[in-house]
């Protein structure tokens, strides 16, 4: 399979992505409503009802299966980026199933019930572990970075930016820095373990955008920053 990005990702008009499915290949697409063009034999596409687990996790009823040789174009909304990930032997990354856009034949999916503690942190009960020989496509907001983990040196990541983490990782809700820093940041995941974590750059704060568009005076901006919950009460 070949994926072609027809224009820059995360642009104002969204992103068009062309999938070229080769002879003998099979691709499963979980958001078929995003397909805007198709070329190939009509019988190359077969839509199916998802199983109950898929319906619940994706809030979708239908998936589309494509058999090569054919090609189609999928439209990604503004700010959404499609990240293909080639599965490697021994990978133990856990993903949110809602981020999954496609997977190829040969990919196996296993549900992982999280511990009560991790349920509270992630606000989810189940994550998905992918294995096998194949490729998956993950929907993210902005650029995707892969950051290494260490068992004794924690990595702090804003909670809304994490898209996948190793099954062996230890997660804690935390903040860092001095009192003023910890008071004005969103909750972080304090992560230790082996392997790496995937984060998305577009999941963070919109404060910079607000600051660039904001014409407030220096006194109001100081009070908003210096007073606890000032951003809530001082408009």
UniProtKB/TrEMBL annotation:
Lineage top rank: taxon: Bacteria
InterPro entries to which the protein is assigned, alphabetical: AIM24 (IPR002838), AIM24_sf (IPR036983), Trp_RNA-bd_attenuator-like_dom (IPR016031)
Protein name: Biogenesis AIM24 protein
Species whose genome carries this gene: Fontibacillus phaseoli
Organism lineage: Bacteria, Bacillati, Bacillota, Bacilli, Bacillales
